[in-house]
Write a structure and sequence with these properties.
Layout (H helix, E strand, L loop, with lengths): L1 E6 L6 H21 L8 E7 L5 E2 L5 E2 L3 E2 L8 E4 L6 H7 L1 H9 L6 E4 L4 H6 L7 E2 L6 H7 L4 E2 L5 E4 L2 E4 L5 H12 L2 H10 L24 H12 L7 H7 L4 H12 L3 H19 L4 H7 L5 H12 L3 H8 L2 H8 L1
Parallel strand pairs: 1-2, 1-6, 2-5, 6-7, 7-11, 8-9
Antiparallel strand pairs: 3-4, 10-11
Helix pairs in contact: 1-6, 1-7, 6-7
């Protein structure tokens, strides 16, 4: 069971607190339907407040927490909702949450923020020398307060080591689906998104890819190799040359890659290409032949077999199942 704790405070967004709880509940149901032998629910979500006090949200709804923040000693995931009121005032009124964040071992737990909740992470020093994002309206304030953080306001979600941030509004949906991808699999994230009628292609940075969990490690050299492969997947990539490019022996690259990502570089390259192909099938009207060419393959038969082995579906069936209806209608015109 994955324990998710929402560290909540007065005048947080009610939708972020209740909505992400709903998201994980649906994900747990989807996971259970795929794994009927599992006896425990996949996720357990709890809302925690300081001293277990009732929470008055932005729209004056009162939410009763499950526990006090002080009582939380262990959780796989800690999430901070958006600050809906005055940011500086909210931070000054919640020193306990900042101290709690400082005490969490960020190497062992996922810590994430929705929108301006990233100010809590920055205040606790968790974003120092890391990449982060926040709501666009708070960009200037964030940069002025935390110059040691690399703010990438154009990104909907950032993931640096074990710290996640999202860009605000309803992007807590994207944050939740990202976490579901990490702890479950691509299918569960996609099925959960479909239940909520969410567009999983809202950002080029994230569309709930099977690659996400394979980048959940701290070997920066291997992450750099992965990033390079994700950009240059169309090229004829030779592992020996790749090893030399990143200053590693062939044997060392393969060993470290498998240790960090769980697969060999060759398998990861296949995953990258299939992931790109699956997005193009759903998000564009390109023919399957064009997609095969664009993803670095030359043989349609081999591509189809590999795609089916990776996704469980042929490219044409995958497109029919997951392509948004409005895009299909545009194609028919």
């Amino acid at each position: 069971m994955i324990n998710v704790t929402l560290l909540a405070f007065d005048y947080a967004m009610a939708s972020a607190l209740a909505g992400i709880s709903d998201l994980f509940t649906i994900a747990a149901s989807s996971w259970k339907s795929q794994h009927p032998q599992e006896k425990q629910a996949k996720f357990k979500v709890q809302i925690a407040s300081w001293d277990k006090k009732p929470l008055k949200t932005l729209n004056n709804l009162v939410i009763m927490p499950h526990c006090s923040i002080q009582a939380v000693t262990e959780s796989d995931v800690y999430l901070i909702p958006a600050i809906a009121g005055d940011i500086d005032k909210t931070l000054s009124q919640n020193p306990g949450i900042i101290e709690k964040l400082k005490a969490i071992n960020s190497e062992k737990h996922i810590i994430g923020s929705n929108s301006t909740g990233s100010f809590f992470l920055a205040e606790a020093g968790l974003l120092d020398n890391k990449i982060a994002t926040t709501h666009w309206s708070a960009e200037k304030l964030f940069m002025a307060k935390y110059p040691q953080v690399t703010l990438t306001i154009e990104q909907l979600i950032t993931h640096d080591e074990n710290i996640l941030c999202d860009g605000g509004g309803l992007s807590w949906f994207d944050l939740g689906l990202y976490i579901i991808e990490l702890f479950c699999d691509h299918k569960t994230a996609l099925e959960t998104a479909k239940t909520f009628v969410l567009d999983t292609g809202r950002t080029t940075q994230l569309s709930y890819s099977p690659l996400i969990s394979k980048k959940y490690h701290n070997d920066k050299t291997i992450r750099a190799v992965q990033d390079w492969m994700e950009i240059n997947y169309q090229a004829n990539i030779i592992i020996d040359q790749l090893s030399s490019q990143f200053g590693l022996s062939n044997r060392s690259l393969i060993r470290r890659f498998k240790q960090s990502a769980g697969v060999t570089p060759s398998v990861y390259l296949q995953d990258v290409r299939i992931d790109v192909a699956s997005k193009l099938l759903v998000q564009t009207n390109k023919t399957i032949e064009e997609i095969i060419d664009k993803t670095g393959y030359s043989d349609a038969s081999s591509f189809t077999k590999l795609f089916k082995r990776k996704t469980g579906l042929t490219p044409s069936i995958y497109r029919a199942r997951y392509k948004p209806v409005h895009t299909q209608k545009q194609t028919e015109r």
